[in-house]
Protein 1
Amino acid sequence: MSLALEDRLAIAELVSLHGHLVDDGSLERLEELFTADVVYDLTDFGQGRLVGVEAIREAALALGAANPVAHHVTNIVIAESADGRIRVRSKGLGVKADGSCGSVSYDDIAVRARDGWRICYRKVSARRTPLNGVTQP
Protein backbone atom coordinates (compact mmCIF):
# COMPACT_ATOMS: atom_id res chain seq x y z
CA MET A 1 0.00 0.00 0.00
CA SER A 2 1.31 3.41 -0.93
CA LEU A 3 0.29 6.29 1.30
CA ALA A 4 -1.53 8.96 -0.71
CA LEU A 5 -0.31 12.55 -0.70
CA GLU A 6 -3.57 13.64 0.97
CA ASP A 7 -2.92 11.19 3.81
CA ARG A 8 0.65 12.40 4.23
CA LEU A 9 -0.56 16.00 4.49
CA ALA A 10 -3.28 15.05 6.96
CA ILE A 11 -0.78 13.17 9.16
CA ALA A 12 1.69 16.08 9.08
CA GLU A 13 -1.10 18.47 10.10
CA LEU A 14 -2.13 16.07 12.86
CA VAL A 15 1.38 16.10 14.33
CA SER A 16 1.58 19.89 13.99
CA LEU A 17 -1.79 20.42 15.69
CA HIS A 18 -0.44 19.02 18.99
CA GLY A 19 1.53 22.18 19.82
CA HIS A 20 -1.37 24.48 19.02
CA LEU A 21 -3.86 22.59 21.17
CA VAL A 22 -1.54 22.19 24.15
CA ASP A 23 -0.19 25.75 24.04
CA ASP A 24 -3.76 27.10 23.79
CA GLY A 25 -4.80 24.99 26.78
CA SER A 26 -7.36 23.21 24.59
CA LEU A 27 -6.87 19.91 26.39
CA GLU A 28 -10.53 19.02 25.86
CA ARG A 29 -9.65 18.61 22.16
CA LEU A 30 -6.93 15.96 22.59
CA GLU A 31 -9.31 13.40 21.05
CA GLU A 32 -8.61 15.19 17.75
CA LEU A 33 -5.00 14.01 18.04
CA PHE A 34 -5.05 10.66 19.79
CA THR A 35 -7.01 7.43 19.84
CA ALA A 36 -8.95 6.83 23.07
CA ASP A 37 -6.46 4.11 24.10
CA VAL A 38 -3.28 5.96 23.07
CA VAL A 39 -0.01 4.99 24.75
CA TYR A 40 2.04 8.13 25.48
CA ASP A 41 5.51 7.04 26.54
CA LEU A 42 7.26 9.54 28.82
CA THR A 43 9.69 7.00 30.25
CA ASP A 44 12.63 9.20 29.27
CA PHE A 45 11.24 11.86 31.62
CA GLY A 46 10.65 9.47 34.52
CA GLN A 47 6.86 9.49 34.09
CA GLY A 48 6.41 6.06 32.54
CA ARG A 49 3.68 5.33 30.02
CA LEU A 50 0.40 7.17 30.09
CA VAL A 51 -2.53 5.21 28.68
CA GLY A 52 -5.56 7.02 27.30
CA VAL A 53 -6.39 10.62 26.46
CA GLU A 54 -7.61 11.38 29.98
CA ALA A 55 -4.24 10.33 31.44
CA ILE A 56 -2.46 12.74 29.08
CA ARG A 57 -4.85 15.54 30.02
CA GLU A 58 -4.38 14.88 33.75
CA ALA A 59 -0.58 14.81 33.42
CA ALA A 60 -0.55 18.14 31.56
CA LEU A 61 -2.76 19.74 34.22
CA ALA A 62 -0.65 18.29 37.03
CA LEU A 63 2.49 19.76 35.46
CA GLY A 64 0.77 23.14 35.46
CA ALA A 65 3.10 26.14 35.15
CA ALA A 66 6.06 23.83 34.50
CA ASN A 67 4.64 23.08 31.03
CA PRO A 68 6.40 24.78 28.13
CA VAL A 69 4.62 27.91 26.91
CA ALA A 70 5.40 26.92 23.32
CA HIS A 71 5.69 23.55 21.58
CA HIS A 72 7.19 23.66 18.08
CA VAL A 73 7.23 20.58 15.85
CA THR A 74 9.50 20.27 12.84
CA ASN A 75 11.30 17.75 10.61
CA ILE A 76 8.25 15.50 10.17
CA VAL A 77 9.08 12.24 8.39
CA ILE A 78 6.29 9.82 7.52
CA ALA A 79 7.04 6.21 6.55
CA GLU A 80 5.10 3.04 5.99
CA SER A 81 6.71 0.12 7.76
CA ALA A 82 6.76 -3.48 6.57
CA ASP A 83 3.99 -4.35 9.05
CA GLY A 84 1.69 -1.77 7.43
CA ARG A 85 1.91 0.74 10.28
CA ILE A 86 2.39 4.41 9.59
CA ARG A 87 5.40 5.61 11.55
CA VAL A 88 5.98 9.31 12.05
CA ARG A 89 9.17 10.81 13.38
CA SER A 90 9.48 14.48 14.24
CA LYS A 91 11.48 16.90 16.33
CA GLY A 92 10.04 19.08 19.03
CA LEU A 93 11.29 22.26 20.65
CA GLY A 94 9.75 23.35 23.93
CA VAL A 95 10.18 26.90 25.18
CA LYS A 96 9.65 27.53 28.90
CA ALA A 97 8.31 30.71 30.45
CA ASP A 98 11.83 31.68 31.55
CA GLY A 99 13.10 31.47 27.95
CA SER A 100 14.99 28.20 28.37
CA CYS A 101 14.26 25.52 25.83
CA GLY A 102 14.67 21.82 25.27
CA SER A 103 14.56 19.45 22.35
CA VAL A 104 12.77 16.11 21.96
CA SER A 105 12.15 13.50 19.31
CA TYR A 106 8.62 12.20 18.81
CA ASP A 107 8.19 8.66 17.51
CA ASP A 108 4.55 8.11 16.64
CA ILE A 109 2.34 5.47 15.13
CA ALA A 110 -0.64 6.90 13.27
CA VAL A 111 -3.81 5.01 12.39
CA ARG A 112 -6.79 5.89 10.26
CA ALA A 113 -9.79 6.34 12.55
CA ARG A 114 -13.44 7.04 11.81
CA ASP A 115 -12.86 10.81 12.04
CA GLY A 116 -9.47 10.91 10.30
CA TRP A 117 -5.91 10.13 11.29
CA ARG A 118 -5.03 9.75 14.98
CA ILE A 119 -1.89 8.93 16.95
CA CYS A 120 -2.21 5.60 18.79
CA TYR A 121 1.34 5.56 20.17
CA ARG A 122 3.83 8.32 20.95
CA LYS A 123 7.26 8.04 22.50
CA VAL A 124 8.87 11.29 23.60
CA SER A 125 12.66 11.12 23.86
CA ALA A 126 14.70 13.95 25.33
CA ARG A 127 17.62 15.15 23.27
CA ARG A 128 20.27 15.86 25.89
CA THR A 129 23.55 14.82 24.26
CA PRO A 130 25.00 16.15 20.99
CA LEU A 131 25.08 13.54 18.20
CA ASN A 132 23.18 11.24 20.56
CA GLY A 133 26.48 10.38 22.24
CA VAL A 134 28.29 9.23 19.08
CA THR A 135 32.01 9.98 19.23
CA GLN A 136 34.97 9.42 16.94
CA PRO A 137 36.44 5.91 17.10
Protein 2
Amino acid sequence: MNNLMNFCRVGIIIFLIILFNSGCSVAHSVNTSSTVSLSKELKKEIPAIKKIKYTFTRPNLTINIEMKDVPTEESVNSILANVKQFSTIENINEIAKSVKWKSEIYDINLIIYNHSEEKPAIKYIASYFKTFDASNTSEENIDGYKTWTKYEEPQS
Protein backbone atom coordinates (compact mmCIF):
# COMPACT_ATOMS: atom_id res chain seq x y z
CA MET A 1 0.00 0.00 0.00
CA ASN A 2 2.84 2.38 0.85
CA ASN A 3 4.50 1.70 -2.52
CA LEU A 4 1.27 2.49 -4.33
CA MET A 5 0.91 5.81 -2.48
CA ASN A 6 4.53 6.74 -3.23
CA PHE A 7 4.00 5.84 -6.88
CA CYS A 8 0.89 8.06 -7.00
CA ARG A 9 2.77 10.96 -5.37
CA VAL A 10 5.59 10.68 -7.91
CA GLY A 11 3.06 10.55 -10.74
CA ILE A 12 1.31 13.67 -9.49
CA ILE A 13 4.62 15.52 -9.13
CA ILE A 14 5.65 14.58 -12.67
CA PHE A 15 2.25 15.66 -13.99
CA LEU A 16 2.53 19.03 -12.22
CA ILE A 17 6.04 19.60 -13.60
CA ILE A 18 4.86 18.83 -17.14
CA LEU A 19 1.81 21.05 -16.69
CA PHE A 20 3.93 23.92 -15.35
CA ASN A 21 6.51 23.67 -18.14
CA SER A 22 3.96 23.49 -20.94
CA GLY A 23 2.09 26.47 -19.52
CA CYS A 24 5.20 28.63 -19.82
CA SER A 25 5.45 28.28 -23.59
CA VAL A 26 2.11 29.72 -24.61
CA ALA A 27 2.04 31.48 -27.96
CA HIS A 28 0.74 35.06 -27.79
CA SER A 29 -0.60 36.94 -30.79
CA VAL A 30 1.12 40.31 -31.03
CA ASN A 31 -0.60 43.52 -32.08
CA THR A 32 1.28 46.76 -31.39
CA SER A 33 1.40 50.08 -33.19
CA SER A 34 4.72 49.06 -34.79
CA THR A 35 3.41 45.69 -36.05
CA VAL A 36 0.31 47.38 -37.48
CA SER A 37 2.52 49.92 -39.28
CA LEU A 38 4.80 47.20 -40.65
CA SER A 39 1.83 45.17 -41.90
CA LYS A 40 0.31 48.18 -43.67
CA GLU A 41 3.64 49.07 -45.28
CA LEU A 42 4.31 45.50 -46.44
CA LYS A 43 0.82 45.00 -47.89
CA LYS A 44 0.99 48.34 -49.69
CA GLU A 45 4.40 47.59 -51.16
CA ILE A 46 3.83 43.87 -51.90
CA PRO A 47 0.26 43.09 -53.02
CA ALA A 48 1.10 39.37 -53.21
CA ILE A 49 1.03 39.15 -49.39
CA LYS A 50 -2.04 37.24 -48.23
CA LYS A 51 -1.64 37.33 -44.44
CA ILE A 52 0.83 38.51 -41.79
CA LYS A 53 0.86 37.05 -38.29
CA TYR A 54 3.07 38.05 -35.35
CA THR A 55 3.48 35.52 -32.55
CA PHE A 56 5.51 35.63 -29.35
CA THR A 57 6.49 32.31 -27.80
CA ARG A 58 8.98 32.91 -25.04
CA PRO A 59 11.61 34.11 -25.67
CA ASN A 60 11.15 34.58 -29.45
CA LEU A 61 9.08 36.61 -31.89
CA THR A 62 7.94 34.96 -35.11
CA ILE A 63 6.67 36.88 -38.11
CA ASN A 64 4.78 34.59 -40.50
CA ILE A 65 4.09 36.04 -43.93
CA GLU A 66 1.82 34.01 -46.16
CA MET A 67 2.03 34.84 -49.86
CA LYS A 68 -0.71 34.33 -52.45
CA ASP A 69 1.82 32.83 -54.88
CA VAL A 70 5.34 31.45 -54.67
CA PRO A 71 7.40 34.38 -53.34
CA THR A 72 9.72 36.00 -55.86
CA GLU A 73 13.28 36.95 -54.98
CA GLU A 74 12.27 40.60 -55.32
CA SER A 75 9.36 40.26 -52.87
CA VAL A 76 11.51 38.34 -50.37
CA ASN A 77 14.21 41.02 -50.52
CA SER A 78 11.62 43.75 -50.05
CA ILE A 79 10.03 41.97 -47.09
CA LEU A 80 13.43 41.40 -45.49
CA ALA A 81 14.42 45.07 -45.95
CA ASN A 82 11.18 46.24 -44.31
CA VAL A 83 11.48 43.76 -41.43
CA LYS A 84 15.11 44.79 -40.84
CA GLN A 85 14.02 48.43 -40.64
CA PHE A 86 11.20 47.47 -38.23
CA SER A 87 13.48 45.40 -35.96
CA THR A 88 14.75 48.14 -33.71
CA ILE A 89 15.33 47.49 -30.04
CA GLU A 90 12.58 50.02 -29.28
CA ASN A 91 9.97 48.23 -31.43
CA ILE A 92 10.92 44.81 -30.10
CA ASN A 93 10.84 46.06 -26.50
CA GLU A 94 7.34 47.44 -27.19
CA ILE A 95 6.33 43.93 -28.24
CA ALA A 96 7.94 42.38 -25.13
CA LYS A 97 6.05 44.83 -22.94
CA SER A 98 2.75 44.07 -24.73
CA VAL A 99 3.05 40.37 -23.81
CA LYS A 100 4.36 41.14 -20.30
CA TRP A 101 7.81 39.70 -21.07
CA LYS A 102 10.33 41.31 -18.73
CA SER A 103 13.48 40.40 -20.66
CA GLU A 104 14.89 40.83 -24.14
CA ILE A 105 13.26 38.95 -26.97
CA TYR A 106 16.12 36.65 -27.96
CA ASP A 107 15.33 35.92 -31.60
CA ILE A 108 13.15 37.25 -34.38
CA ASN A 109 12.14 34.54 -36.84
CA LEU A 110 10.86 35.65 -40.24
CA ILE A 111 9.04 32.96 -42.22
CA ILE A 112 7.84 33.67 -45.76
CA TYR A 113 5.73 30.97 -47.40
CA ASN A 114 2.82 29.93 -49.49
CA HIS A 115 1.15 26.54 -49.49
CA SER A 116 3.03 25.38 -52.57
CA GLU A 117 4.91 22.13 -52.89
CA GLU A 118 7.40 23.68 -55.33
CA LYS A 119 9.19 25.93 -52.85
CA PRO A 120 9.77 25.42 -49.11
CA ALA A 121 9.31 28.22 -46.63
CA ILE A 122 12.02 30.87 -46.58
CA LYS A 123 13.33 31.50 -43.07
CA TYR A 124 15.52 34.23 -41.62
CA ILE A 125 16.61 34.85 -38.05
CA ALA A 126 18.08 37.78 -36.14
CA SER A 127 19.14 37.74 -32.50
CA TYR A 128 19.52 40.21 -29.69
CA PHE A 129 22.64 38.44 -28.42
CA LYS A 130 25.66 37.52 -30.56
CA THR A 131 26.19 34.29 -28.59
CA PHE A 132 23.92 31.82 -26.85
CA ASP A 133 24.95 33.27 -23.49
CA ALA A 134 22.00 35.48 -22.56
CA SER A 135 23.54 36.16 -19.16
CA ASN A 136 26.37 38.05 -20.88
CA THR A 137 24.83 41.47 -21.39
CA SER A 138 28.12 43.16 -22.25
CA GLU A 139 28.17 45.45 -25.27
CA GLU A 140 30.42 42.95 -27.11
CA ASN A 141 27.63 40.35 -26.90
CA ILE A 142 24.75 42.55 -28.11
CA ASP A 143 23.82 42.40 -31.80
CA GLY A 144 20.45 44.10 -31.35
CA TYR A 145 18.78 42.27 -34.29
CA LYS A 146 21.18 43.82 -36.82
CA THR A 147 22.51 40.59 -38.34
CA TRP A 148 20.02 38.54 -40.34
CA THR A 149 20.87 34.98 -41.36
CA LYS A 150 18.98 32.84 -43.85
CA TYR A 151 18.14 29.43 -42.46
CA GLU A 152 19.08 26.71 -44.89
CA GLU A 153 17.35 23.35 -44.64
CA PRO A 154 19.84 20.51 -44.12
CA GLN A 155 20.33 18.44 -47.25
CA SER A 156 19.14 14.87 -46.81
Protein 3
Amino acid sequence: MPKRSRAAKIPYGSTRTVHMPRTRRRDAQPIVLIVPERPTLTQRALRALGGWLWDTRRAWSPSGVALAALVAAALMHALFWWTAFVLAPAALLPFGWLAWAGVRRPADDRTVRRWRHTLAVLASAATAWAALAVCFGPLAGPLELIWFALAVTAQVLWLRTRRTTAATVPIEEIH
Protein backbone atom coordinates (compact mmCIF):
# COMPACT_ATOMS: atom_id res chain seq x y z
CA MET A 1 0.00 0.00 0.00
CA PRO A 2 1.54 3.32 -1.04
CA LYS A 3 2.12 5.82 1.71
CA ARG A 4 0.19 9.10 1.33
CA SER A 5 1.97 12.36 1.71
CA ARG A 6 0.83 14.69 4.51
CA ALA A 7 0.36 17.51 2.04
CA ALA A 8 -1.85 15.46 -0.27
CA LYS A 9 -5.14 17.07 -1.20
CA ILE A 10 -8.24 15.30 0.04
CA PRO A 11 -11.47 15.87 -1.89
CA TYR A 12 -14.44 17.44 -0.10
CA GLY A 13 -16.74 15.04 1.69
CA SER A 14 -14.25 12.17 1.85
CA THR A 15 -13.30 10.65 5.17
CA ARG A 16 -10.04 11.65 6.71
CA THR A 17 -8.07 8.99 8.49
CA VAL A 18 -5.48 9.99 11.02
CA HIS A 19 -3.02 7.37 12.23
CA MET A 20 -1.97 7.87 15.84
CA PRO A 21 0.97 6.04 17.38
CA ARG A 22 0.20 3.51 20.12
CA THR A 23 0.46 4.73 23.64
CA ARG A 24 3.21 2.92 25.51
CA ARG A 25 1.71 3.14 29.00
CA ARG A 26 -1.26 1.08 30.08
CA ASP A 27 -2.92 3.83 32.13
CA ALA A 28 -2.73 6.41 29.33
CA GLN A 29 -5.98 7.94 28.13
CA PRO A 30 -6.97 7.51 24.49
CA ILE A 31 -6.17 10.41 22.21
CA VAL A 32 -9.12 12.08 20.51
CA LEU A 33 -8.29 14.20 17.51
CA ILE A 34 -10.96 16.35 15.91
CA VAL A 35 -10.27 17.34 12.32
CA PRO A 36 -12.64 20.04 11.12
CA GLU A 37 -13.93 19.77 7.59
CA ARG A 38 -13.23 22.55 5.17
CA PRO A 39 -16.42 24.32 4.07
CA THR A 40 -17.56 23.76 0.52
CA LEU A 41 -17.80 26.59 -1.97
CA THR A 42 -21.58 26.71 -1.54
CA GLN A 43 -21.25 26.97 2.24
CA ARG A 44 -18.70 29.74 1.89
CA ALA A 45 -20.92 31.65 -0.55
CA LEU A 46 -23.96 31.29 1.71
CA ARG A 47 -21.95 32.45 4.72
CA ALA A 48 -20.73 35.49 2.77
CA LEU A 49 -24.27 36.29 1.61
CA GLY A 50 -25.62 35.90 5.14
CA GLY A 51 -22.91 38.16 6.53
CA TRP A 52 -23.61 40.79 3.90
CA LEU A 53 -27.36 40.65 4.59
CA TRP A 54 -26.71 40.94 8.32
CA ASP A 55 -24.41 43.93 7.84
CA THR A 56 -26.95 45.73 5.62
CA ARG A 57 -30.09 44.65 7.49
CA ARG A 58 -31.26 48.21 8.19
CA ALA A 59 -31.11 49.13 4.54
CA TRP A 60 -33.24 46.12 3.56
CA SER A 61 -35.89 46.45 6.29
CA PRO A 62 -38.72 47.64 3.94
CA SER A 63 -38.25 44.51 1.85
CA GLY A 64 -38.49 42.37 4.98
CA VAL A 65 -41.66 44.18 6.06
CA ALA A 66 -43.14 43.71 2.57
CA LEU A 67 -42.35 40.00 2.62
CA ALA A 68 -43.87 39.66 6.10
CA ALA A 69 -46.99 41.50 4.88
CA LEU A 70 -47.31 39.10 1.95
CA VAL A 71 -47.09 36.07 4.25
CA ALA A 72 -49.47 37.63 6.79
CA ALA A 73 -52.00 38.41 4.05
CA ALA A 74 -51.83 34.82 2.82
CA LEU A 75 -52.39 33.47 6.33
CA MET A 76 -55.23 35.88 7.00
CA HIS A 77 -56.81 34.96 3.66
CA ALA A 78 -56.73 31.31 4.65
CA LEU A 79 -57.87 31.74 8.26
CA PHE A 80 -59.67 35.06 8.76
CA TRP A 81 -60.96 36.20 5.36
CA TRP A 82 -63.61 38.40 7.00
CA THR A 83 -60.94 40.86 8.25
CA ALA A 84 -60.92 42.30 4.72
CA PHE A 85 -64.15 44.09 5.68
CA VAL A 86 -62.30 45.74 8.57
CA LEU A 87 -59.25 46.66 6.50
CA ALA A 88 -61.22 48.17 3.60
CA PRO A 89 -62.47 51.25 5.50
CA ALA A 90 -59.06 51.57 7.15
CA ALA A 91 -57.62 52.45 3.74
CA LEU A 92 -59.08 55.94 4.18
CA LEU A 93 -57.36 56.60 7.53
CA PRO A 94 -54.11 57.97 5.99
CA PHE A 95 -56.11 60.72 4.30
CA GLY A 96 -57.70 61.54 7.66
CA TRP A 97 -54.20 61.83 9.11
CA LEU A 98 -53.24 64.10 6.22
CA ALA A 99 -56.18 66.42 6.95
CA TRP A 100 -55.39 66.38 10.69
CA ALA A 101 -51.70 67.14 10.07
CA GLY A 102 -52.65 69.99 7.73
CA VAL A 103 -54.80 71.60 10.45
CA ARG A 104 -52.65 70.87 13.52
CA ARG A 105 -49.21 71.29 11.98
CA PRO A 106 -49.46 73.30 8.79
CA ALA A 107 -46.35 73.06 6.63
CA ASP A 108 -45.02 76.08 4.78
CA ASP A 109 -42.34 74.07 3.04
CA ARG A 110 -43.38 72.45 -0.23
CA THR A 111 -41.20 69.36 0.32
CA VAL A 112 -42.90 68.62 3.65
CA ARG A 113 -46.30 68.75 1.98
CA ARG A 114 -45.07 66.48 -0.84
CA TRP A 115 -43.70 63.94 1.64
CA ARG A 116 -46.96 63.97 3.60
CA HIS A 117 -49.01 63.43 0.46
CA THR A 118 -46.68 60.68 -0.75
CA LEU A 119 -46.80 58.86 2.57
CA ALA A 120 -50.60 59.16 2.76
CA VAL A 121 -51.04 57.77 -0.75
CA LEU A 122 -48.58 54.90 -0.14
CA ALA A 123 -50.13 54.00 3.22
CA SER A 124 -53.61 54.08 1.70
CA ALA A 125 -52.50 51.93 -1.24
CA ALA A 126 -50.79 49.45 1.10
CA THR A 127 -53.88 49.17 3.29
CA ALA A 128 -56.13 48.76 0.24
CA TRP A 129 -53.79 46.06 -1.09
CA ALA A 130 -53.92 44.31 2.29
CA ALA A 131 -57.74 44.38 2.26
CA LEU A 132 -57.90 42.99 -1.28
CA ALA A 133 -55.17 40.41 -0.57
CA VAL A 134 -56.99 39.16 2.50
CA CYS A 135 -60.27 38.96 0.59
CA PHE A 136 -59.07 37.39 -2.68
CA GLY A 137 -55.60 36.06 -1.83
CA PRO A 138 -52.26 37.87 -2.20
CA LEU A 139 -51.42 36.29 -5.55
CA ALA A 140 -54.81 36.76 -7.21
CA GLY A 141 -54.89 38.80 -10.40
CA PRO A 142 -52.76 41.95 -10.38
CA LEU A 143 -52.30 41.95 -6.59
CA GLU A 144 -48.84 40.41 -6.83
CA LEU A 145 -47.70 43.19 -9.17
CA ILE A 146 -49.22 45.82 -6.90
CA TRP A 147 -47.39 44.26 -3.95
CA PHE A 148 -44.12 44.28 -5.90
CA ALA A 149 -44.60 47.92 -6.95
CA LEU A 150 -45.36 48.98 -3.37
CA ALA A 151 -42.36 47.04 -2.03
CA VAL A 152 -39.97 48.56 -4.58
CA THR A 153 -41.36 52.05 -3.97
CA ALA A 154 -40.98 51.69 -0.20
CA GLN A 155 -37.44 50.37 -0.62
CA VAL A 156 -36.40 53.21 -2.92
CA LEU A 157 -37.93 55.86 -0.66
CA TRP A 158 -36.28 54.27 2.37
CA LEU A 159 -32.84 54.28 0.77
CA ARG A 160 -33.30 57.82 -0.57
CA THR A 161 -34.41 59.17 2.80
CA ARG A 162 -31.59 57.46 4.66
CA ARG A 163 -29.05 58.88 2.21
CA THR A 164 -30.36 62.46 2.44
CA THR A 165 -30.70 62.44 6.24
CA ALA A 166 -27.24 60.95 6.69
CA ALA A 167 -25.76 63.63 4.43
CA THR A 168 -27.41 66.52 6.28
CA VAL A 169 -26.43 65.50 9.80
CA PRO A 170 -23.55 67.75 10.91
CA ILE A 171 -20.35 66.14 12.09
CA GLU A 172 -19.51 66.92 15.71
CA GLU A 173 -16.12 68.37 16.39
CA ILE A 174 -13.99 66.87 19.14
CA HIS A 175 -12.18 69.45 21.23
